[in-house]
Amino acid sequence: MAPIRFKLPIGAKRQVTIPSKAMELLSLQQGDDLFLEIDGEYAVLQPAVSVSRSELPDDLWKKFQSRRGAKPTDIPLETFLAEVMPHAATPNETVRAARSASRKKSRRPITAADSMGSRTAAAKA
Q1: Residues of the chain scoring pLDDT < 70
Q2: Rounded-to-integer distance, Cα 77 and Cα 98, Å
Q3: Cα–Cα dist 13/68, whole Å
Q4: How many angstroms separate the CA atoms of 84 and 6, rounded?
Q5: Sequence-separated (6 or more) residues with CB below 8 Å from residue 95
Q6: Which of 26, 52, 79, 124 has the fewest other C-beta atoms within 10 Å?
């Protein structure tokens, strides 16, 4: 396939609009990411591709796993929380409270108004 060229004017806020034909050819959608590579006086844009860890080849997954592990700068969560929240009773209580607060934020009890609609709930009141 012969190369296709597009002229991309740079807007006032340094923004560039990708033509719809280029979006189609590259299978891009709004919100996708691009990599910009600069080589001398040339610039190359490439679609950024994300791959789920479960889809990685086994040898690459093992390589990633081998690079993980404890670092000399790592500290236990309890020690960190004790340093940033010295007023807490014990580090374990702080950890439990933080986890509990996180769970409470994500769950809201369902009320009668939620299940019946606001008009029905107001009429029954």
Answers
A1: 70-71, 88-125
A2: 11
A3: 40
A4: 53
A5: 77, 78, 81
A6: 52
Structure tokens at 125: 């009141």
- Whether the model clears a pTM of 0.90, i.e. scores above it, the answer is no
Radius of gyration of the chain (CA): 26
- 9, two tokens: 């004017």
Q: What single string gives the DSSP state of each residue in the chain? A: ---------B-TTS-BPPPHHHHHHTT--TT--EEEEEETTEEEEEE-----GGGS-HHHHHHHHHH-S--TT---HHHHHHHH-TTSS-HHHHHHHHHHHHHHHH-----HHHHH-HHHHHHH-
The whole-angstrom separation of Cα 51 and Cα 18 is 24
